[in-house]
Amino acid sequence: MRTLLLPLVTLAAACSSASAAEAKLLPAPERDVPASQGMQTAVLAGGCFWGVEAVFEHVKGVRSVESGYAGGDSKGANYEAVSSERTRHAEAVKIVYDPRAVSYGTLLRLFFSVAHDPTQLNRQGPDVGTSYRSAIFPQNSEQKAVAAAYIAQLGKSGAFNRKIVTRLESGPFYRAEAYHQDFMRRNPMHPYILAHDRPKILALKRAAPALYRS
Predict the structure, then answer these.
(1) Of residues 42, 48, 95, 110, which has the active-site annotation?
(2) Rounded to an integer, what distance in angstroms lies between the CA atom of residue 161 and that of residue 118?
């Protein structure tokens, strides 16, 4: 279950500024999925889906982002059940993007750089449990190969001080309840958003201004 911290707005703003100041992009993937005609889909899990969704909604070339659940049984694809940590789902986002404007590798680069911490096992920040795990759900063999290669590349580069625990998984994506969709956009002053998700948007804007859209 999501832990709702209640920091002062001024404290959250200070944390946001600090995180944005330290933001930097990781090296680009050495291997990428070739551009193609038509929209493509990526499914990524990196902790609470509110913030991950918000990050990719601000990326040029992304057409839509949905919050949902992946990696478990459809019978348990609802927030209450997933939060029990018994359904094997991860909170995830489905990203529909134009590969001629932004590549799958670039999405992964942002995923690892600003959307979450890939060294935290079965948690992100204050949220603990397997539903908050770091995972990639490749939609085809090309995505799987690129994701595996990029994890190996980052591991060899020493980009992180700890081991990357991101898993490659399979399974369908199930859309989350309506109240979870566009949560940050609809609740910009929510204490959790201010403390944990707004810093990600500021980090994206600072680290990748060419990819950022307001």
Answers:
(1) 48
(2) 11
Separation of alpha carbons 122 and 133, rounded Å? 4
Nearest CA to 55 out of 198, 181, 154, 186 is that of 198
- 139-166 pLDDT, tens per residue? 999 999 999 999 999 999 999 999 999 9
The 10s digit of each residue's pLDDT in 51-87 is: 999 999 999 999 999 999 999 888 879 999 999 999 9
The CATH number given to whatever domain includes residue 151 is 3.30.1060.10
User: Is 15 annotated as catalytic?
Assistant: no
In a domain, 1, yes or no: no
In a domain, 212, yes or no: no
In a domain, 213, yes or no: no
Please report the sign of the dihedral spanned by the C-alpha atoms of residue 89, residue 92, residue 96, residue 97. Answer: negative
